[in-house]
C-alpha cells in the first residue's frame, strides 16, 4: 500500500519540483498540500501550489492555506531574489480550476491524520509554523505522524540565509524549536546533504524533452539555476526540497544519525542556527535523525527519471 503523504510547503521553485516528484512516485499517496508563508507571501504560495498540482493534472489534491507569519516575531523578509517575485521563477502557470480548501491548514492536516488508515508521512519543506501549530492544537492528531521529514537546518555547513542559519529554520526559529523538541519521529534534511545535490542543465534537459509538464518545470527552474550560479557557484539547481521528498518517498535514501538538536532562538547573529550535537549518537526521546550522508548522483538520477516518467504519463 502507498504511504499516505502530506506536503507542507511554500512554493517556491524547489518546492514545486518536490510536489511534482511526489506526484510521480507510486510509493506515496499525496492526500493534502498545506501552505505556509516563506519564499513568498501565503496567498502566493497557496496559488502556486494549486497551479503546480493543476499542471500535473492533479487538481483533485486539496490545498489548505496555513500560517501567514511566524509564531513569535514578524518575518517580513521573503526570498523573491531566489524564487522570482511570484515564487515560480516568473513563469505564469495556468490557473487551477480548484479553489483552496476552506479549512485552515492545521484543521485539514489534523483531519487527514486522524482519518488515515496508516501512519502518515508529513514532509515540511517551508518554515515549520504549521507543524508547530498542529503540535499545540491537535497533539492527538500529531501522534498519527509516522515520519516527519523536515527540510531545514545545517549541522556543519553554516547557513544559507545568514552565516549561521538555513532559510526554513531562520524564517520561524521558535516553531522549529517546538517541532524538533516534540518527540515526533523526524528526519532532518539540511544543507549538509542538500548543497552537494545539484541538478544540472543536462538533467533538466532530459525531462524538458519528455513533454509539456517537464518543459514547464524546466522553465520554472531557470531562475533558480541563474541564482545558484551567482550565489553558490554551482552549475545548477540545489535540490533542497526535492531531496527531502526523496527521503519521504524512499526512507533510507539518506544516511542519518540520531542526534540532539536545538535551535538558536536568541535575537543575535546566531538566530535560526540548528545546533546539532555531533559528539554522540543520542538515545534521548526528543533526538532526531539528522541526514549526514547522501549519494547525490543517485538522488539526481531518481528525480530526473521520475520527472521524465511523470511528463510522459501526463502528456
Ligand atoms: C529552503 O529555503 C527555501 O528557499 C527553499 O524552498 C528550501 O525549502 C532551503 O534553505
Ligand atoms: Ca521550500
Automatic annotation (TrEMBL):
Residues 5-299 form the Inosine/uridine-preferring nucleoside hydrolase domain. It comes from the Bacteria. One of its GO terms (biological process) is purine nucleoside catabolic process. The keyword Protein biosynthesis does not apply. GO terms for molecular function: purine nucleosidase activity. Keywords: Glycosidase, Hydrolase. GO terms for cellular component: cytosol. Coiled coil: none annotated. The keyword Translocase does not apply. This is Pyrimidine-specific ribonucleoside hydrolase.
Amino acid at each position: 500500500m502507498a504511504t499516505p503523504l502530506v506536503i507542507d510547503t511554500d512554493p517556491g521553485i524547489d518546492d514545486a519540483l518536490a510536489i511534482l516528484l511526489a506526484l510521480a512516485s507510486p510509493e506515496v499517496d499525496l492526500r493534502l498540500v498545506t501552505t505556509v508563508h516563506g519564499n513568498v507571501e501565503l496567498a502566493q504560495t497557496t496559488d502556486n501550489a494549486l497551479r503546480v498540482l493543476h499542471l500535473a493534472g492533479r487538481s483533485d489534491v486539496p490545498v489548505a492555506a496555513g500560517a501567514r507569519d511566524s509564531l513569535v516575531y514578524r518575518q517580513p523578509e521573503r526570498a523573491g531574489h531566489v524564487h522570482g517575485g511570484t515564487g515560480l521563477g516568473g513563469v505564469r502557470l495556468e490557473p487551477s480550476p480548484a479553489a483552496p480548501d476552506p479549512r485552515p491548514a492545521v484543521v485539514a492536516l489534523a483531519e487527514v491524520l486522524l482519518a488515515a488508515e496508516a501512519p502518515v508521512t508529513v514532509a515540511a519543506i517551508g518554515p515549520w509554523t504549521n507543524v508547530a501549530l498542529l503540535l499545540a492544537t491537535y497533539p492527538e492528531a500529531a501522534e498519527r505522524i509516522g515520519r516527519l521529514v523536515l527540510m531545514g537546518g545545517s549541522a556543519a555547513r553554516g547557513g544559507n540565509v545568514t552565516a549561521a542559519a538555513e532559510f526554513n529554520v531562520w524564517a520561524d526559529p521558535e516553531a522549529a524549536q517546538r517541532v524538533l523538541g516534540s518527540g515526533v519521529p523526524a528526519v532532518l534534511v539540511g544543507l549538509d546533504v542538500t548543497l552537494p545535490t545539484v541538478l544540472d542543465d543536462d538533467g533538466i534537459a532530459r525531462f524538458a524533452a519528455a513533454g509539456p509538464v517537464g518543459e514547464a518545470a524546466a522553465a520554472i527552474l531557470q531562475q533558480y539555476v541563474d541564482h545558484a550560479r551567482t550565489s553558490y557557484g554551482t552549475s545548477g539547481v540545489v535540490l533542497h526540497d526535492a531531496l527531502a521528498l526523496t527521503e519521504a518517498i524512499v526512507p533510507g535514501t539518506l544516511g542519518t544519525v540520531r542526534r540532539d538538536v536545538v535551535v538558536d532562538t536568541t535575537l543575535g547573529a546566531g538566530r535560526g542556527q540548528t545546533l546539532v550535537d555531533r559528539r554522540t549518537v543520542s538515545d534521548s526521546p526528543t533526538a532526531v535523525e539528522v541526514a549526514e550522508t547522501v549519494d547525490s548522483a543517485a538522488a539526481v538520477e531518481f528525480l530526473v527519471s521520475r520527472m521524465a516518467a511523470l511528463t510522459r504519463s501526463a502528456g
